[in-house]
Amino acid sequence: MEKPREWLREKSIAKKILSEANVIFEVVDARIPLKTRNKVVEQLAKERNKKVFIIINKTDLVPESFVQKAKNIIEKEHPVVLFSAHRKTGKKEIEKIIKELSKEKKVIKIGVLGYPNVGKSSLINTLKRKKVATTSPKPGMTRGEKLIKLDKNVYLIDTPGIITLEFQDELAIKGSWIPDKLEDPVDVAVKLLEKIIQNRPEAIEEAYGVKPVDDPFKTLEKIGEKLNYRISGGTIDIERTAKKILWDWIKGNIKAYWL
Ligand SMILES: Nc1nc2c(ncn2[C@@H]2O[C@H](COP(=O)(O)OP(=O)(O)OP(=O)(O)O)[C@@H](O)[C@H]2O)c(=O)[nH]1
């Protein structure tokens, strides 16, 4: 099958970074830590013998026991750091890793990779102690790669999110696709609600004050009703409700998580 040009461009960015970097920090989202691991990036790193550290970011959004479970699974393959750019936890551990790495080589270049919106720029800004990378809840805000000097002989390579060949729907559920650009936001919001209902239904009640029902579409309607999103004639504006739910998910306003 012919690959879309976008995919080839991304894969070539990933390849370039993997050849330039001595080591990779792959950032994942603590709410969906296994789903936001990028298999293409990890495979490319393996082929090039580059060590991968998995930085589980946004740990402030999930319980400690959940993230510990994810850590135990991922640690079978790669070293893991539990991190929160918002709370600045895990920073010392990462600095220790960087210190160790710089003992092995004269110049260290760390490629920071991961899906859009997982917090790559936030990680870089935390390590740099000031804002050098643009952060935004809008996925895909980092454009082009950037070399950031962290210390004498230590550099970070900031990158745009690597998503490779995936469907928009799956990306949106990973928080990596702008809801307004989806062809069918209602369908995606229903899939997301289904996941939330399966894994942590109380997150819906916490976010919207609405008790979820087994049927995710009915739950979406109930949320729209509660938000009072209506179109002329008074019927629920399903599409607006769907986009609101997807944005809330991206922004971390819905406290659900799964492996
Ligand atoms: N709750 C929480 N939110 C975070 C954390 N780190 C980042 N975020 C939020 O996640 C969103 C994305 O963060 P960025 O640092 O811009 O993510 P990125 O991976 O560089 O994004 P792209 O530029 O789209 O590739 C922003 O709204 C951040 O405020 C964290 O530790 N906890």
What features would you describe in this structure?
The chain has helices at 5-20, 39-47, 64-74, 91-104, 120-128, 168-173, 185-199, 202-208, 216-227, 238-250, and strands spanning 23-29, 51-57, 80-82, 108-113, 146-151, 154-158. The protein is built from ten helices and six strands. Helix 7 packs across helix 10 (238-250). The chain is elongated, with a radius of gyration of 19 Å. With 259 residues, the protein is of the alpha/beta class. The chain folds into two domains: 5-158, P-loop containing nucleotide triphosphate hydrolases (Rossmann fold), CATH 3.40.50.300; 168-250, Orthogonal Bundle (Conserved Hypothetical Protein Ylqf, Chain: A, domain 2), CATH 1.10.1580.10. Helix 2 links the parallel strand 1 and strand 2. The protein starts with a helix and ends in a 9-residue tail after the last helix. The chain is 43% helix and 13% strand. Guanosine-5'-triphosphate binds next to helix 5.
